[in-house]
Amino acid sequence: MTPDTLTADGTTAPVVPDGRKVKGDKTRRAILTAAVNVASVEGLEGLSIGRLASELNMSKSGLFSHFGSKEELQVSTVRAAAAIFAHRVIAPAVEVHEPGLARLCSMLLAWQDYIERGVFAGGCFFAAATVEMDGRPGPVRDAVAAQMTRWAGLLTEYIQEAIDRGELRPETDPVQLAFELDALGTAVNSGWQLHEDAAVFERGRRALRRRLEADATEAGLAVLASR
Amino acid sequence: MTPDTLTADGTTAPVVPDGRKVKGDKTRRAILTAAVNVASVEGLEGLSIGRLASELNMSKSGLFSHFGSKEELQVSTVRAAAAIFAHRVIAPAVEVHEPGLARLCSMLLAWQDYIERGVFAGGCFFAAATVEMDGRPGPVRDAVAAQMTRWAGLLTEYIQEAIDRGELRPETDPVQLAFELDALGTAVNSGWQLHEDAAVFERGRRALRRRLEADATEAGLAVLASR
DNA sequence: AAGAAAAACGAACGATCGTTCTTGTACCAC
DNA sequence: GTGGTACAAGAACGATCGTTCGTTTTTCTT
């Protein structure tokens, strides 16, 4: 889609057609990595250019010139966070497991792992960004909403694949199930951030498993049992 | 507990021992009502004293003197929101239904109703406040966390009552079920705020019902069927 | 090595933030 | 009526916000 490649830290690095790196991009990625972390704690609105600059030992104007406006910085931060999420949660499940219930289940557990391991300082970036931006119109909100739609679509797609493979019952409503699975994951993030009680992860895993079992066929139960 | 009485709009009005109203309290309540609405959209941190003052056609310093600090305004706002929530969601369920599954179910539906009817401009105040404040220490976070703990405790308590009455299966884990029910309600709020798709309410109701049915006894199923 | 292009800097802008202090105003007891 | 008391207004503070501008430093090309 875009001519971006995924780098090790999950941020994107634009490349020109012949493959040479665009110069100055290293700084930009360093900024966005820090921005995602700050925003996961302080929020996308609480992310201030001056604070971010001093944290990176650079000047406010130097940082600013990479984006041209705060709004552009925020949108870029959302995209960087999405790349990290894709790298840490989606990619492992896709690489290791074939389509179906195994892939779906693996991705959901990877999501919890990424919350538990504290990939972002303030917990799941999108859980925070969604609630923060959902009330105010503008490009930043649209960027967040687009990512959340993508995520819900991905869940729905994987569920549909599991149905097609006969691992979930054919009368399963994919959108409904995706809604509930997302709800549980988000609640795990909130519970962990608010109470720092690690028991929430076990609760989350139990809830996910029971919810999937409720719609699983015998073939699906076998897949779940093997995990 | 506190010498406060619940007023019509859900905010609290302090009374002195002989019952006379403390003067100037009307202004304070008007401020907090507006503050809760602004904070539900802009967040507790985005709530600015100057903006709030101009919205109420009063001076910044005049408003400020009611609280003495922004932090105190934020904590008071959290308490005011809790009172409104109690008035709109908890009280109706307690008044109409006796303890047990009926009360629990009624409260969960009242919660969805309060989200759907837009009691706060930015959706459920606590869903927003929780995610916003969960990362930063201080009295405001503590106030929010205390309310969320109260809410989780209330859900757990009502579930336990339903177990004791034989409406939910005795092996039901109240904390686990409370976690899942709260997850679904919160997801309804997010879905509504982000996509403005009213279908999320039907999804939420279906998910709540199916989750309760999964742990219900025959007596419990009868209660659920009658609703 | 020289010149062009890009990146970073430092200073300053108007605006708004939370907060303080002083002044004016309404009300209530005496 | 008069004095006291709580409430509200107004001006101003230092700090920080996003942003602009002109200059300097770095980097790449040739």
Explain this structure to me?
The structure is a homodimer of 227-residue chains. With 227 residues, chain A is mainly α. Chain A is built from 10 helices and 2 strands, in the order ββαααααααααα. Chain A has helices at residues 25-46, 49-55, 60-64, 70-96, 101-116, 125-133, 139-164, 174-195, 199-215, 218-225; strands at 4-6, 12-14. The first copy, chain A, has a two-stranded antiparallel ribbon. In chain A, helix 1 (25-46) crosses helix 6, helix 4 (70-96) runs parallel beside helix 7 and helix 6 (125-133) packs across helix 7 (139-164). The longest helix of chain A is centred in the middle third of the chain and has 27 residues, at 70-96. The radius of gyration of chain A is 19 Å and the shape is elongated. Residues 1-21 of chain A have low confidence and may be disordered. The interface between A and B is large, with 41 and 40 residues. Chain A binds a DNA duplex (30 and 30 nucleotides) through residues 23-24, 27, 48-51, 58-66, 68-70.
